[in-house]
Every structure is written in C-alpha cells, then in structure tokens.
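Narrative of activities, Objective 1.

The group set out to show that a structural description can be obtained from nothing but a protein's sequence at a throughput compatible with the screening campaign. Below is one input-output pair from the validation batch, recorded exactly as produced.
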Amino acid sequence: MVEKTIYYKDLGEGLPIVFIHPPGMGHKVFLYQENLSQSYRILLPDLNGHGMSSKRDNPVSIPGFSLDIKEMLDHAGMEKAVICGYSAGSMVAQDFVLSYPERTHAMILSGGYPKVNSLLLAAEYKLGMRLVRKNRERLAYIIARSHTNHPSFQNVLKNYMMKADPRVWYEFYHKSYHYDCSERLSSVKVPVLLLYGARETWMKKHIPFYNQCSFCTLQEIPKAFHQLPSRQSVYFNRIIDHFLREQAPLFQNMISK
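Output recorded for this entry:
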C-alpha cells in the first residue's frame, strides 16, 4: 500500500513492468500477465478509486493517475520501470512517460491512442459514460463478457469492477476522452511497443501519431480484436518478452534467463 490508498500486486523479480488498467477494471484484467513474473517483476496497481484502492480527495485527472504510478514506484523502491497501458490505460501510461521520463525504461501500449480520434471510439466512450451513470452493473457485465468466455473469470472481472467508485469510473472515461498528448509524442525517447489486434481497425487509426517517437515497434496479432491481455494472453506476453529481450538491450541484464 502507498499511504493506505493505492493497492498494487507485486510479483516476481527482475526488470519491473507496470500494467495500467482502463476505466473501472482494476488490476484483475491482467490476470494472465502474472505469468510474466517468471522473468520480470510485475506490478499491477488499482488506480485511485478502483478495486482495493481508496478514492482520494483530489480531483480525478490523467496526471493524477500518473502520480499514483510514481508513488507506487517510490513505495516499491524502484527507480525505473517499463510502463504498459491497456486501452484507455494507455493515456495514463503516456502521461507518465511524458511527465517522468527519468523513471521510464520503455513504454508498451496495447490498443493505445494519444487522443480519441475515431467516431467509433468516441461512441464507445459516450456509451460507457452513460452506462456508468445509469446501469453500472450492466456495463460491468458487458465489459467482462467482452474480455473472456470463461464464466468464472467473467464473474471475477464483473465483481471487481463493481468495487470501483462510480464518480472516479465516470471521470476516468471523461478525462481520457478529452486527453490529448498527440503533439508531445516526439518527446518520447524510450523504446515504444505498440500492440493491436488485426481486427481492431478503429484503434489502428491512431498508429500514425506514433511516427513521432524515436524508437517505435508495431506488432499486430492476427484475427484478434481489442482485448489482447485476456483473450490473446499467450501471444501478448510472448511479444512483450521478445521486445524487452531483443529490442531493448540496455536493460537485458535485468531479465531472468
């Protein structure tokens, strides 16, 4: 815990990887990334107002979530980490890398985007914000079903999403909907891995923004949609491992063989 507010799961040893969840979901969405703890130190936080983390008094913001991650790293005694953001969690990941470059080894974005730049994605946001206010349980059910076909895991995800503070859940959607770091990506000097499902065409519209980054690798998983960490976990974990071992040699000595 960090000042009894930020919960995070800490597994394994070696090069640290922080996985940042989308609105409402909490760290449970990264269940299958726990397997990476055989070679890496895996940190799975619940952001402010999610899961087992309490709601802070300060206003919800993307920089505020970035501060959650920084404080977690301070608490865990880590100078730097690989920062991985999934979906809208990519907003927090990018904000962290831009705000704290000295604390970042590399950045990994799964279905990431620097701003909402497609009509379908905008529609998904608006639906999510409406359902958070009108029927959170229905939204949690829809999201859980989209991430796995296993009923037990669906229940875990749904029940954990219901722990999220409704106002924070809504504000995470709202703040990331309006967030835009597209003009600052040229400042990213660490290795970047972009991961997309080949079928998530509405997300891939954002890829050209990352041409500004100094060192950027794009990987698409065939026949896959957006929910890569859970539905394509074997490929997802394998690509991350390969990227860190083969394309980021500066910290290979931190990775378990």
